[in-house]
Model the fold of this input.
Amino acid sequence: MSRAYNFSAGPAAIPDAVLDRIREDIPDWNGTGMSVMEVSHRSKEFVEVASKAEQDLRDLLSIPDDYSVLFPQGGASLQFSMVPLNLAAEGQVVDYCLTGSWSKKAIAEASKFCKVNVIADSSDQNFTYVPDENGWNRSEGAAYLHYCANETIAGVEFPFIPDAGDTVLVSDMSSTILSRPLDVSKFGVIYAGAQKNIGPAGITLVIVRKDLIGKAGMSTPSLLDYSVYDKSDSMSNTPPVFTWYVAGLVFEHLKGLGGLDAVAETNSRKAQKLYAAIDGSSFYSNPVREDCRSWMNVPFILGNPDLDSVFLEESLAAGLTNLKGHRSVGGMRASIYNAMPEAGIDALISFMQEFERTRA
Ligand SMILES: Cc1ncc(COP(=O)(O)O)c(C=O)c1O
Done:
């Protein structure tokens, strides 16, 4: 059986070594005579998995002790609601950067609870850049400042961590978390859906500074309250044990690769290679301003959009899957998360060059 190079934006590729380990573990996990999907989340064996996963993540990101690591469900999308419900009083002003489709959704949700002030907006150029921080229209006394560090659809990544001053900084890092080292101490809350660099969908990572926990209003449903997850080690109800276990294997795998410095070096090389191939061609183009180009999601447009469907058909036949771009951008998008091997980038570039030579 041959594995495809999967360029999906999420659910995304999982490292081969992790898949091998899952295959080995399934029938008799940890000597229990059961698969991990069949054990109690309260069993000694699973509690050990959960705490090891948290410790490995803490090691990878050097998460300071005054931060809690929570694993709720509901994806990053539920954090669009949980963030305002936990960090702001009803009707309070909150600052949001509007830099793409995901921050737009976060703003729509927060607007149900708070008064959202859009402090930066790049919709004038179809979300292809990050507005200069000096021009942001910040509010006095905002409960927090929210931004999406990597807009998965347009392939735009913040080239800096915003300076929020005394305001709590919150970031949706769904499609960039674990792609490189990160200074967690600059943030109040970091959240990410699992299905890109963490593991299968079904679990959400929330890293939250401890002093921000316990501020949700009385009417906040328990499962939307950070303090409920914090007090119960994210097990106040049945968690998705399989997803959590796989996330733990991914964290262990990343540590084995040498941690996030090593991961970042590879990611940078992979992205530079692909952008260089796009920029060096007169047939492909990437619309994103150069300093904001994502390491993880690389959209590229074909010189002749009539060839899009042929490109997709032939790339699929060549074992390169899920390259179709989002309809709001058009063309193609290669999502090249941690689990995409460098050989996958080389294969994509060779395919693109051959396609250009024969079709353009
Ligand atoms: C940046 C970003 N935020 C939020 C989401 C939504 O995540 P979920 O499907 O886990 O709710 C996605 C999904 O792709 C995303 O890329």
In short: The chain has two domains: 5-16+259-359, 20-256. The mean pLDDT is 97. The longest helix spans residues 259-279.
